[in-house]
Amino acid sequence: MTLENKNVITRFPSLSSRCTTVQVLKSPKTDSSIRTIFLPKTVAEMLVEFKAEQDMTKEALGAEYTDYNLVVAGPLGMPTEQSTINGALKKLIEKNDLPKVVFHSFRHSSITYKLKLNGGDIKAVQGDSGHAQASMVTEQYAHILDDDRRLNAQRFDDFFYQHQGAEPEMPPQTAQPIPENSAVDADAAAALTKLLANPSMAELIKNLAKNL
């Protein structure tokens, strides 16, 4: 099949005269694919180290190395083929007895972990994933958010109804002054907190819930 020249940036030369196909570098399909990614410090340091090794290879090979300004390249500067990446991933999985996944699975894993770590901040994840709409993240990863909500329900049940554990730890927060004209009275708020911590109050709430 003949490749259209539309959006083609670079055509790389064939590695063999018997090869009937060539690799090409094309511009992204959509505008949302062009985005800034904030890398973890550890990953950034690994890339800096990798770049230093790449520069040493360029200097050692001289004219034999063709610099296409690629982040990941082969020994002579050519782009790394998909089969090479898949082969390396397969060896890594077999060596470390890991679940068998395809390379694209890392994209889903990244989004999943970020949602778990940031407490479901969909907009922040959308910026990295490239989804055009935040709703697309919600639809595809709603099960992740549901898992957290399910866990919250279990914790609530354990504390208020099963009387397990101590007072739940609250994240440190900066004290906010109560406006003078606020409808919420500080003494009333303190009294309410004390009531909710009382086991008999929890039992009352439980009985009320049964009668609803």
From TrEMBL:
Domain of life (superkingdom): Bacteria
Tyr recombinase domain ranges (all copies): 1-155
Keywords: DNA recombination
Full protein name: Tyrosine-type recombinase/integrase
Native organism: Faecalibacterium faecis
